[in-house]
Write a structure and sequence with these properties.
- By secondary structure, the protein is of the alpha/beta class.
- It is 31% helix and 21% strand.
- The chain has 2 domains: 277 residues, Aminopeptidase, CATH 3.40.630.10; 120 residues, Alpha-Beta Plaits.
- A 6-stranded mixed β-sheet has the order 1-2-6-3-7-16, sandwiched between helices.
- α4 crosses α10 and α8 crosses α10.
- The radius of gyration is 23 Å and the shape is elongated.
Length: 420
């Protein structure tokens, strides 16, 4: 049963305004490390509407926006968290990626799927509270963070500064009917192979670092990670080689193919399960590579964590696995709000595949002691495609409604009621 106060808040959820905000966000390219223009746009948006706004400089010239709708005091605080950075453009876009296109229930545009659709939803959930005139007891924080796709730089910065709320929801694109409480961990590493350069006219004594790397890659395909299997994450742990670069010298000179390359680097992603450690992962990788080095004295390699800073946007931070109990108060608060808005039960609470195979900013929040979960609008096909990416408007609207009601619920409670 929805009471009059809740009904008044839900009446302020405006689908047109939601689409317009998501469209405005699409129009501002914000690749990782390049989020400042969208941060300034959001700071102005919130500032014009009376929020307390902090434009945080997480590194020189790189900003994120933290907006707070202040409560009257005594209530629990809630953070709605969404990232402003977007993934690289893929090759198969058929539409203009920077022009929002509405086709029925689908809003297209680069970055709207991951995760400007979710970002618009959390902003408009806060707006529904503000526009209704309801004064919450606790603070409602909208954290528009940078660098999630490189390991959670913005949220990590926020936690390192000591910023805390009593609970949080991260609006990753996992579906408006899914409350996700589990995800894997992620670590990125570089593997370098070293050679001896020389001209094609005199190959004697040379060692081709690219050839060596091909043998390393083949060995990595056979790596066996020691771990306790996690039945709800059956495909993991898993390793992926995401990129390769080889050439001459420390700068990987690429335009001298008559010469043997003396440096080759691959960037490797490992998604891992609870119980594994980075040290254990590195040990397992070495266990796969050492026989290769023992057989061939020309094989010289090094593992570097994090990858070199010269790779712009590299993932510096490790994202640890996340696993909050499904009976945690914040999880149950979102579930109650979902029931109130939809009149139905959520399709899933807990591990939801393939979404739990990812990782995100909940890991930094959880590590800092903030109970949290994942709840955000999905695309037509979940979280799989970056080509011609879209978000479903109906999903954005449902998430906005559920999170507005969640804010009303959580921020009127005492902080102790949110403790896990």
């Amino acid at each position: 049963m929805i009471d009059e106060v809740t009904r008044g808040i839900l009446a302020q959820v405006d689908q047109r305004a939601l689409i317009d905000l998501a469209g405005a966000l699409i129009r501002i390219p914000s690749f990782k490390t390049e989020e400042t223009p969208v941060a300034r746009f959001l700071a102005q948006f919130f500032g014009q509407r009376g929020y307390d706004v902090e434009l945080q400089e997480i590194e020189p010239g790189r900003f994120q926006t933290i907006a707070t709708l202040r409560g009257t005091g005594g209530g629990a605080s809630l953070m709605l968290n969404g990232h402003t950075d977007i993934n690289a453009l893929t090759r198969r876009w058929r539409r203009d990626p920077w022009t929002p296109t509405l086709e029925g229930d689908r809003l297209y545009g680069h970055g709207v799927q991951n995760m400007k659709g979710g970002l618009a939803s959390i902003v408009m959930a806060a707006e529904a509270i503000r526009r209704s005139g309801v004064r919450l007891a606790g603070d409602l924080v909208v954290a528009c963070v940078a660098g999630e796709t490189q390991g959670g730089e913005g949220t990590h910065f926020l936690m390192e500064r000591g910023f805390r709320t009593d609970a949080a929801v991260v609006a990753e694109p996992f579906g408006a009917d899914h409350l996700v409480t589990v995800h894997s961990g992620i670590v990125h590493l570089a593997i370098h192979t070293y050679g001896v350069t020389g001209h094609i006219g005199r190959l004697e004594g040379t060692v081709n670092a690219v050839h060596t790397m091909t043998a390393v890659i083949e060995a990595l395909r056979r790596v066996q990670f020691r771990h306790v299997p996690r039945p709800d994450l059956p495909a993991f742990p898993r390793l992926n080689i995401g990129s390769i670069l080889g050439g001459r010298g420390h700068d990987y000179v690429l335009v001298e193919p008559p010469y043997v390359p003396d440096l080759c680097t691959i960037l490797v992603d490992v998604h891992f399960v609870p119980g594994q450690t980075v040290d254990g992962i590195v040990a397992d990788i070495r266990r796969a590579l050492e026989p290769l080095a023992a057989r061939d004295p020309d094989v010289r390699y090094a593992i570097e964590i994090p990858p070199p800073a010269s790779f712009k946007g590299r993932r510096r931070l490790v994202m640890e696995p996340f696993d909050i109990p499904v009976d945690a108060p914040i999880v149950q608060a979102v579930a109650r709000s979902y029931r109130a808005v939809t009149g139905q039960e959520p399709q899933a609470i807990g591990t939801v595949l393939p979404h739990s195979y990812s990782a995100d900013d909940t890991c930094h929040l959880w590590k800092a002691g903030i109970p949290c979960l994942l709840y955000g609008p999905a695309t037509l096909r979940g979280n799989a495609d970056e080509d011609d990416a879209c978000v479903l408007v109906s999903e954005m609207e449902k998430v906005t409604r559920v999170l507005a009601v969640t804010a009303l619920d959580v921020c009127q409670r005492k902080p102790a009621e949110l403790a896990t």
